[in-house]
Amino acid sequence: MSAKSLSDIKYSVLDLATVVQGGDAADSFKKSVEVAQLAEKLGYTRYWFAEHHNMPGVASSATSILIGHIAGHTSKIRVGSGGIMLPNHAPLVVAEQFGTLASLYPGRIDLGLGRAPGTDQLTALAIRGENFNAVHNFPKDIARLQMFFSADNADSKVRAVPGEGLDIPIWVLGSSTDSAKVAAAMGLPYAFASHFAPAHFLEAIRIYRDNFRPSEYLKEPYVISCINVVAADTDAEAERLATSVKQMFKGVVTGKRQLLPPPVRSMDDVWNIYEEEAVMQMLAYSFIGSAETVKNKLTSFLELTGIDEVMATSHIFDHQSRLYSYKVFADIIRTSAYAPLS
């Protein structure tokens, strides 16, 4: 693992089209366009959406449609999935959808793939129907997608049109060591969900790098780490804004999900000691604070992990504060400077 500085890494955005209290999905989609357009101006590399279902506060269920919407409102930033939950879909349909996107927006579409349902078991049953108990082989499904994208599939009786012959990068997503083994064996880039599943992150990227096999798609291992970012003018303001994401994760821990709530002055009356411990474990890789604080934390994180790219997700209730956070974060990496958002 070679040493990297902040200027060596790429930086990107993960969006869940989060719905805030008092808002709706349509409002979230408009805000996503504004965030993506700003991210493009600030030099972010890619803008990904995550597939989730049956979650009131997450409106990114129809992931491929949102990818097209954002790609149509931007001009150069890469747009993709972080990820498509492959057991929910037939590989051929995914190939056709992303082949369509790549035909509309050449050279800009990423296909990140996960093997979790992205929801609860009852909803997964509703999505998969009679296929719920079918055996899903994640590596084989990825290989089918690669086959559908290959020009060599032209003589097959089943073809992806559009999709065939197109260069659509495939990423393996994961929150455990199992996905690291898949990415390494197939020679594919690896994106880890360290923003909510930090426990196995360091072990997973070690396994990925140690076992990586170069492929026609990738010669050396490449790691994206997704992190929570809340940046503001001061540490105190960032901590205040971050009470929204802490309340959101409390809903995950307790099973009482809600729309993203506004910040509160203190979390003391919101959670108990056990909920706090569980939430803070999930938020271990969170970068909350002023530009200087976030820069110092990010520098240490990079020294520890040697990641190639960082993907920021920012669950911030106030839209202007969210935009500002992405501006500060980009400035930290681009120039190590900090300037007001004009």
TrEMBL record:
Please name the CDD domains in this protein's record: Flavin_utilizing_monoxygenases (cd00347)
Q: Per its UniProt entry, which superkingdom is the organism in?
A: Bacteria
Q: Which GO terms describe its cellular component?
A: cytosol
The family database entries (InterPro entries) matched by this protein are listed as:
Bact_Lucif_Oxidored (IPR050766), CmoO-like (IPR019949), Luciferase-like_dom (IPR011251), Luciferase-like_sf (IPR036661)
Q: Name one Pfam family in it.
A: Bac_luciferase
Luciferase-like domain residues are 15-308
Q: Name one GO molecular function term.
A: oxidoreductase activity, acting on paired donors, with incorporation or reduction of molecular oxygen
Hey, which family's this protein in? Answer: To bacterial alkanal monooxygenase alpha and beta chains.
Protein name as catalogued: Luciferase-like monooxygenase
The species this protein belongs to is Mucilaginibacter pallidiroseus
